[in-house]
Structures are given as structure tokens and as C-alpha cells.
Design brief:
By secondary structure, the chain is α+β, with helices and mostly antiparallel strands. The chain has 16 helices and 25 strands. A hairpin with a 5-residue loop joins strand 11 and strand 12. It starts with 19 loop residues before the first strand and ends in a 14-residue tail after the last strand.
Length: 569
């Protein structure tokens, strides 16, 4: 039997080793900081805030760390620029972060607590409400915009003395003498062919005693560090893609909504797994999104277009009636769970936190509070390693982080749902039956573990899936380019290409990339007469969702300050 077209058989011209380097700037030209955090998401900023709190209480430690005790580099224009999520947040980690500081906790930007929820199983013409499964109960959790939360946490970090370096992309992890020593930032002001333009600025070495990677999904340096230090978990990491819109609506939505089923197909052969969320954002706005696993096989499957199709359901039309779309975004979500966690979360001079480390609970649709909790623990471990008589470069100096994380509710929660994502590879109904057994027994049944394969190893098939997608009408349904415009994308047209793919591939693979991408980055080019085609790229459209990395290519960081400018997401 023919193997068919498999994306993994056409690997991109990239090796994780390209993201590892030794310091190259002269010693007196390097930027020196005490602790360096890569990524201004909830995990990285919580880490920075907790470090700031500890250093406030230990001025002698802060003095030893130099002029910049704690720095955060962020590739977006500002904290929050690249943050996209639902989001319904469990507040327990934020309460810990601001323990004893009630005035800060009260300032956290939210749209209030969840007071009601509805879960539906959909067919094309019907909606059947079911009791919320235990994993999807959200009473008293907080409704937030994660972009707004990121900006708030950034302000709190700066207020406590943290230096935030925006528009700064981390291109290489600096490793020497067996330990991580910091990062190399990317150049600015290069042209499409890599030439230096008039505003050229070379990158810099930023060296630190401890480097904490909080890059989020598809972390560029996180993947390189896992490979360099042999930290791979028992399973490969896998991802889903979420596409989200924010709508201004005429009638407020008083509860959160989740759906399963349509428009996804239930048969296992299609590999379609996912669902939707609709969350109120105050009285005037709702966020609506669709998430689908990237192990799907159909060349014509498109999460962006599935979201447009989903909005035509009468349940959704009623919520959006008379409304206006005011925001859009797309992002991958880490879904490998417990089995895909790194075997260690530290290496000499290095800590891994948040979603980049795999701390996402797919059945509960939660990851933000895990990221914040891991950031707090990492800050405390880093602080301990910086005390007199200790050195963060010593092998084992940061092991206390692993010990605390593995003993915490974070990993216990993930352990209990360790097989739930994987069983849906068996199809919607069988997967649902297994998931129910796991929920009731807290993961004890079935007694065996189930494992994942990389998203790119699933062979492609073709159906007429695209026939069901509605034509964009500019009122309820929209095309990809108008959506990218709403993201506030800031990528310069003439900067070097940051997307690595094999450019000559079978037509089926090229078409899969075209349909997969929510931002219309890929285009099928000329045929070569042997069944392959050239893939053309429009990198400036890219919103850095990361889907290409899961499906046969590689996303690398573009010039700092590029990408979306999310505000309400």
C-alpha cells in the first residue's frame, strides 16, 4: 500500500543547531544582565515580577547582579502584542504572585468571573446542550484578554525595576563551557536578500547568569535547548491551531459557550479534533474562536474557514446578529501534554517555563495559570542559585525548580489527563468514551498509556472539504487577507524571509500549506512536470502562528517588532 504524501518527508532547510552559538561580541561590548527572561507572556512576566519582589527584599543580591538585575526581551512591539488566547483563567496563580499585595491583584484587567456556561454538541442544523464535563467547568474563573493581561503584567514588572526590551528577537542561544550564557539578538535593517540597509543595526550578545526561556508555543530557542541538552520527553510535542475573532455585539452574552462536533468530521480517518469557544468580554464584546489539532489529514482543511463555517450555525448567528468584527488572530496551542513534557526543565544556567515547556492542559482548555505558576517557581529557583556560595552554572544548581514543579498541582493536573488528547485519534465517539472513563477515575482508566505521533507524520488525503466553506460576505464571514489586516500586522515587506520550507514539493503538500495558513502566506507556483510545484511565499503576511513548524516547515523569528499587534485578544 502506498505511503502517500507525508509532510515530514520534505523537511525544511533548518537544524536546531543553527539556533545555538557561542558568544561572539568582545567582552566589553556584551550586554550584561543578572537574569535574562526570553518572552513577555504571562509566564515570563510573572517570573520577572517574582524576581523583582525577591530582590526588593534582598538588596545585596540585587547589587551583585549589576546595573540590570532582571531583563525581559520581547519580540513584539510591547508586552501583549503577540498574546492570543480565549481566555478563561484560573486565578490561583495570580493570587500567589500578588500575595500580600491586594492593591495589585485588584488592578488585574478582567471582564469579571464566569457565572454560567453552556456546552453543546452540534450537527449542521441542530445544537444539543449537554452538562459541562468536569474538565470544562469554569465557575468563578476569570474572563480576560490575555493581550491586556500581558500589558498589565509588563507595567507591574517595570514598576518593580525590571528592564523590558521590546522589539528584540532572540535568534540564538549562547552556550559555552557546557552551560547557557545568554542569547544573541537578531539584526535589524536587513533587506530581502540579507543586505545591510541604511538603518542597519547588528544584533548583540546579552549574557546572563541565568537565562529563562518563556517563549510560549513553538519556542525557537526552547526547541534548540531541548535538542542541545537532550531534554526530549517520551513523546514528541504536537500542536493545534486556534483562529479567533473579537466581535462588538448588540446583545451581551451572559455565559461562556463551548461546542463540539460540527463542522468537524467525526471519523478517525480525517484526524479532525477540536471545538469552539465563545466568551463574553463585558457587555459589548465577545470572543469567538475555533481550535483544531494539526494532525488532520485533508489537504483542503482550513481552521480559518472552519471558523467562518461555524459562524453560519444558527446558534452562533443569534449571538453575533447585528454585530461587527473588530479583532482577529491566530496561534498554535501546545497539546502534547504530560507525555511530551521535557525530561528535565533545566540545564546549567537555563530554565524552561510556561507553554514552551508544554504546560498546557488540553481537556480543561487551560495553560495561563500554569505558566504563571511555573514562572514564580523559576524565579525562586534562580534566586536561590544566585546566593553566595552557589552558582547557577553548576550542574544540578537549578534542580530545585524541577522538584517543585513536579510536586506541584501543575504536573499533577497534567498527569491526570495524560491520555485524554491522544484517545481522540480513535475518532470522536470512541475518544469521548475513553475520555469519560479517564475523567471519572482521574486518569487511572484505561490502565495503559496512549502516545502521539508528530503532526507532520500523518499522510495527506484529499476530499471536497472546501465546498462547504461559505463565501466571504464581509459581514458574517471573511477572507484571510482582511483578517490579517485586523491583526495589526507590522511585518516589513522587504525584510529577509523568516519561514523555512522545502520550496519544491508535491502539489498536495503545497496546497495543504496554502489551506492551513490563516494569513495567506503560501501560494502554489509553477508546476515542474514531475508532480511537484514551486511554493511561493508572502512572509510579510505572517502573524507568527507557528502552524508551519507543526506541518513540515519551520518558523524562525523575524526582525524584532514584526508580526501582529494584538490588543483585545
Amino acid at each position: 500500500m502506498s505511503r502517500g504524501i507525508v509532510p515530514a518527508d520534505y523537511p525544511p532547510p533548518f537544524s536546531p543547531a543553527e539556533a545555538i552559538a557561542t558568544p561572539s561580541d568582545p567582552v566589553d561590548e556584551r550586554i550584561e544582565v543578572g537574569v535574562l527572561i526570553v518572552g513577555a507572556g504571562p509566564a515570563g512576566l510573572a517570573c520577572a515580577i517574582r524576581l523583582g519582589q525577591l530582590l526588593e527584599d534582598s538588596p545585596e543580591t540585587a547589587e551583585r547582579l549589576g546595573d540590570v538585575p532582571v531583563a525581559v526581551v520581547e519580540k513584539g512591539k510591547q508586552p501583549g502584542s503577540h498574546l492570543l488566547s480565549g481566555a478563561v483563567v484560573n486565578p490561583r496563580a495570580l493570587r500567589r504572585l500578588f500575595k500580600g499585595r491586594p492593591e495589585q491583584l485588584e488592578l488585574v484587567p478582567t471582564y469579571g468571573d464566569v457565572h454560567g456556561e453552556a456546552v453543546y454538541i452540534l450537527t449542521k442544523g441542530t445544537s444539543s446542550r449537554i452538562p459541562p464535563p468536569p474538565t470544562m467547568r469554569n465557575h468563578a474563573n476569570m474572563l480576560v484578554s490575555v493581550a491586556q493581561l500581558g500589558r498589565f503584567l509588563g507595567e507591574q514588572a517595570e514598576a518593580i525595576g525590571v528592564a523590558i526590551l521590546p522589539e528584540t528577537d532572540a535568534q540564538k542561544l549562547l552556550v559555552a563551557d557546557g552551560r547557557v550564557q545568554g542569547i544573541r539578538t537578531g539584526d535589524k535593517g536587513r533587506g530581502r536578500e540579507g543586505q545591510e540597509l541604511g538603518n542597519f543595526e547588528p544584533g548583540s550578545d546579552i549574557v546572563a547568569r541565568v537565562t529563562i526561556l518563556a517563549e510560549g508555543t513553538q519556542g525557537h530557542l526552547t526547541g534548540a535547548a531541548i535538542s542541545r541538552f537532550g531534554l526530549e520527553g517520551s513523546d514528541p510535542q504536537v500542536w493545534a491551531l486556534g483562529v479567533k475573532e473579537v466581535w462588538k455585539v448588540e446583545q451581551s452574552l451572559g455565559h461562556i459557550v463551548h461546542t463540539m462536533g460540527w463542522p468537524l468530521r467525526k471519523r478517525a480517518r480525517f484526524g479532525e479534533f477540536g471545538g469552539s469557544f465563545i466568551y463574553p468580554m463585558g457587555d459589548e464584546h465577545v470572543s469567538i474562536g475555533f481550535v483544531a489539532g494539526l494532525e488532520y489529514r485533508d489537504v483542503e482543511f482550513s481552521v480559518h474557514d472552519v471558523l467562518q463555517e461555524f459562524k453560519t450555525h444558527r446558534l452562533v448567528r443569534k449571538i453575533l446578529r447585528g454585530g461587527e468584527r473588530v479583532g482577529w488572530g491566530a496561534k498554535t496551542i501546545t497539546e502534547g501534554g504530560f507525555h511530551a513534557l521535557p525530561k528535565r526543565f533545566n540545564a546549567p544556567g537555563l530554565l524552561l517555563v510556561g507553554e514552551g515547556a508544554g504546560l498546557v492542559n488540553v481537556p480543561t482548555l487551560k495553560g495561563i495559570h500554569y505558566g504563571i505558576e511555573s514562572g514564580i517557581m523559576a524565579a525562586e529557583a534562580a534566586f536561590r542559585s544566585l546566593q553566595r556560595g552557589e552558582s547557577p552554572s553548576r550542574v544540578g544548581a537549578l534542580d530545585s525548580y524541577d522538584e517543585e514543579l513536579r510536586a506541584s498541582y501543575v504536573l499533577e493536573d497534567l498527569r491526570q489527563v495524560r491520555n485524554m488528547r491522544q484517545v481522540f485519534d480513535k475518532g470522536f465517539f470512541l475518544g469521548g468514551a475513553f475520555a469519560s472513563a479517564m475523567t471519572i477515575t482521574k486518569g487511572k482508566l484505561p490502565p495503559k498509556d496512549y502516545h502521539s505521533e508528530p503532526n507532520a507524520t500523518h499522510s495527506l488525503l484529499r476530499t471536497d472539504r472546501a465546498k462547504s466553506y461559505p463565501a466571504p460576505d464581509g459581514t458574517l464571514t471573511f477572507d484571510k487577507l482582511s483578517s490579517v489586516f485586523l491583526s495589526g500586522n507590522r511585518t516589513r515587506d522587504d525584510q529577509p524571509n523568516h519561514i523555512r520550507i522545502e520550496r519544491q514539493v508535491p502539489r498536495e503538500l503545497a496546497e495543504m500549506w496554502v489551506n492551513m495558513c490563516p494569513a495567506q502566506v503560501y501560494e502554489v507556483g509553477a508546476a515542474d512536470g514531475d508532480g511537484t510545484v514551486t511554493v511561493n511565499l508572502a512572509p510579510s503576511n505572517c502573524v507568527q502562528c507557528g502552524a508551519i513548524t507543526a506541518k513540515g516547515g519551520r518558523l524562525t523569528p523575524p526582525e524584532g517588532g514584526s508580526g501582529p499587534e494584538y490588543t483585545l485578544t
